[in-house]
């Protein structure tokens, strides 16, 4: 109702562009902590600037929790700069020990493609890490159900750690640029089925979940109630009209309650407007996408309400 009243008032004044504003709390389930300005670690000047700028954007846009993945020392740098409101998680499998795409840097201090499982469990036990992924199996050419992944799924299921999987596609010419084993054919969310059957208690986030390309994502959501999605980067990569068509697929399937907002490096103002401008979504659905769905997935009850009262 508040949104409808705002639309009517703004329409009467000719300021309808402002209806895209959203001032409630946000849980961003797709944030990257990695080299953003140059190769190398977080101490490089351009990377230092990028870290400060990205953290400032979180605060500016009322992001009360952010699921942040990246190389080990970048995660440490983000935590040192902003010790609250970050849910950190490692990226892997890596390629020649480095993160795929964009500027390159070692994923882990030991230079390996996978984290040491005992070390990783210690990170969760200490509270340093809270999520697993973005998992880059598609970039590395390693199937989701490859036996090398089993120890990590077992750990995540045992500890109740949410796991985020990259699916769908990647930047243009990615196989030539960094990731020779990358294949589009390995991007279907349906390839997660064996993992979901084998680990029924695993809480899974399917990243880039696009039913316009992979309509079977809805079958996964029906079969596996612990599976949620984010639909970045389509809020920016698609025209507004096409993104709304994607979003309408979720609405028509009754699945907006499984969508979690993810920025994936996008401009927050434009990303937020891509959702709030969808006139077929209710205020409750909007609130769910921006905060309450992720609150439920993360088992962080009360986070959104507490942030609203501040």
How would you sum up this structure, described in words?
The chain has 310 residues and is α/β, with parallel strands linked by helices. It has a single domain (26-309), classed as TIM Barrel, CATH 3.20.20. It is built from 14 helices and seven strands. The strands form two sheets. Strands 4-5-6-7 form a four-stranded parallel beta sheet, with no helix packed on it. Strands 1-2-3 form a three-stranded parallel beta sheet. The protein starts with a helix and ends with a helix.
What is the compact description of this entry?
This protein is α/β, with parallel strands linked by helices. Helices cover about 40% and strands about 10% of the residues. The strands form 2 sheets. A 4-stranded parallel beta sheet has the order 4-5-6-7, with no helix packed on it.
């Amino acid at each position: 109702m508040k949104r409808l009243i705002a639309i009517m008032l703004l329409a009467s004044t000719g300021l309808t562009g402002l209806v895209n504003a959203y001032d409630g709390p946000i849980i961003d389930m797709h944030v990257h902590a990695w080299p953003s300005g140059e190769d190398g670690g977080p101490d490089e000047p351009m990377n230092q600037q990028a870290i400060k700028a990205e953290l400032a954007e979180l605060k500016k846009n009322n992001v009360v929790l952010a699921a942040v993945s990246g190389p080990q020392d970048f995660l440490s740098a983000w935590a040192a700069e902003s010790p609250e409101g970050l849910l950190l998680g490692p990226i892997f499998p890596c390629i020649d020990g480095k993160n795929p795409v964009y500027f390159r840097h070692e994923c882990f201090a030991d230079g390996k493609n996978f984290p040491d499982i005992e070390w990783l469990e210690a990170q969760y036990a200490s509270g340093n890490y809270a999520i697993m992924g973005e998992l880059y199996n598609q970039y590395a050419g390693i199937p989701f159900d490859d036996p090398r992944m089993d120890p990590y799924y077992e750990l995540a299921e045992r500890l109740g750690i949410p796991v985020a999987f990259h699916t769908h596609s990647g930047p243009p010419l990615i196989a030539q640029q960094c990731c020779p084993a990358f294949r589009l054919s390995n991007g279907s969310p349906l390839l997660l089925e064996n993992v979901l059957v084998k680990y029924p208690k695993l809480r899974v986030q399917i990243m880039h979940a696009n039913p316009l390309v992979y309509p079977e994502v809805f079958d996964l959501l029906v079969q596996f109630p612990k599976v949620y999605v984010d639909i970045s980067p389509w809020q920016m990569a698609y025209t507004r009209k096409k993104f709304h068509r994607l979003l309408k697929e979720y609405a028509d399937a009754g699945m907006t309650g499984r969508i979690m907002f993810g920025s994936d490096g996008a401009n927050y103002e434009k990303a937020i407007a891509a959702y709030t401008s969808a006139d077929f979504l209710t205020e409750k659905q909007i609130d769910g996408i921006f905060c309450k769905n992720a609150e439920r997935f993360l088992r962080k009850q009360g986070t959104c309400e507490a942030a609203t009262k501040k």
